[in-house]
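User:
Hi there, any thoughts?
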Amino acid sequence: MKNNKSTCEKGLTSFSRRNFLIGSGLLFAGSVLKVNGAGLLDDPEPIIDIHQHTDFSGRTQEQLIAHQRKMGITTTVLLPAGRPLNYGSTYYGVANGLQVKATGNEVCYKLAQQYPKEYRFGANEVPDFPGAIQEIEKYLKLGAPVIGELKFGVECDSPGMQKIYQLAQAYDVPVLMHWQYNMFNRGFERFYKMLEKYPKVNFLAHSQTWWANIGKEHKDENVLYPKGKVVAGGLTDQLLRNYSNVYGDLSGFSGLYAMTRDEDHARGFLERHQDKLLYGSDCSDIFGSGEGCTGAQAIAAIRRFSATKEIERKILFSNAKKLLRL
């Protein structure tokens, strides 16, 4: 998924390089993580990252793996792009690769097969492509725990999207959706109808329009990053409160900004929805630390704004483990 202010990237190609990165890149939050076997991070406080991409903005797989280890991530879910198509739903190719050059199902699957203790793979396809359901189902049968990231120029209640929801229901996996006003998954104001129509489907919501609507002061949907204090009770807040089958993906600059723009609100929001929020990075940075890494900043923000250790562990680990059955 694309965020103009997010960064992060890709994998290990040689034995010597891999060992160097393990030795130098695992220091996080003042503790050294122990590497066990094929890269399993035996961390007493594991972290699940539900939102990463292969070949994100040109990042190599080597850089991705180093980045995730530097952040202290123990399990990463790789979200594939749909196939490159010259369709209206991809804005005639402009949004191919989720607009960040991310690669598709097979690349994510193969990396997860190479590092099975650290990576899982999602399943995705352009929803109005004639073979979309068959393509997604292929990877669900291989063990994908999630469908997405669904980031296409379609109505959220279009026939193609509803077929995907029906498939998610059949396989009992969540769908992860990128909400961006008048661009991706159009019709946010009608989203509640899909939550009601498919009550057995768990929806993971993400990106600008989702996080802009945490506050009821938000009136102009063209503003993707509203500034200032948040007045609790916006549409996103209401959906999380009123529907058991919707969850918030805190990844990217949009998720980080939603927390940091009003720290007092963030503390109450995380406490209020502690069972409905999941950590993701969605970060194309190559370092895994510092001001350029939204993923590392989000981890720090969750730790800072969580009222209790229990809330922190839910958001960084146990909510994802339960929802995705990892």
